[in-house]
Amino acid sequence: MLHPAFLAGYPSASLADPAGASVIVAALWWLQATLLGTIATTIAIIAVSSVGLMMLSGRVNIRYGLTVIAGSFILFGASTIAAGIQASMAGAGLGAAPYVPPPQAPAPPALPPPPPANPDPYAGASVPTR
């Protein structure tokens, strides 16, 4: 990203960035630095520690406490989360990797042939022969 001091003197090149918008951009950069800077970090630390102490003493529901902690992580990690999403989307347009089929499993061993069918159901029985 460009520094706000550089953006203040940047000439407008399109209708999407009209002349005079650099002042608004600089103000938004200042607001972002204020909201995500040292002051916000200090407030978030105090909030998480106070909610943690109240959770330990049983005054606050655990679900509410975890909501406060997760909100702090999302607030301060938003730029990293957005950068990760953009990086994953940028890699999606590079083309698919060539398909490599999975290795084939070895063929099972061949079963022995079944014994020949015997038409005599009593073959081998202890019947005396005449």
| Mean pLDDT metric | 76
Q: What is the helix/strand order?
A: HHHHH
Tell me the total number of β-strands.
0
Name the helicity range.
Answer: 40-55%
Distance between the termini: 108 Å
Largest sheet: none
Shape: elongated
What low-confidence regions span 5 or more consecutive residues with pLDDT below 50?
none
How much beta, percentage-wise? under 5%
With helices defined by DSSP (H or I, 4 residues minimum), what is the helix count?
Answer: 5
Assembly category: single chain
Strand-pairing-aware structural class = mainly alpha
Q: What is the alpha-carbon Rg in Å?
A: 37 Å
Please describe what this structure looks like:
With 130 residues, this protein is mainly α. Helices cover 54% and strands 0% of the residues. The chain contains five helices and no strands. Helix 3 (38-57) runs antiparallel to helix 4 and helix 4 packs across helix 5. The model has no long low-confidence stretch (mean pLDDT 76).
Q: Topology, pairings included?
A:
Layout: H1 4-8, H2 21-35, H3 38-57, H4 62-76, H5 78-92
Helix pairs in contact: 3-4, 4-5
Name its key features.
single chain; 130 residues; mainly alpha; 5 helices; 54% helix; 0% strand; elongated
What is the gist of this entry?
With 130 residues, the protein is mostly helical. Helices cover 54% and strands 0% of the residues.
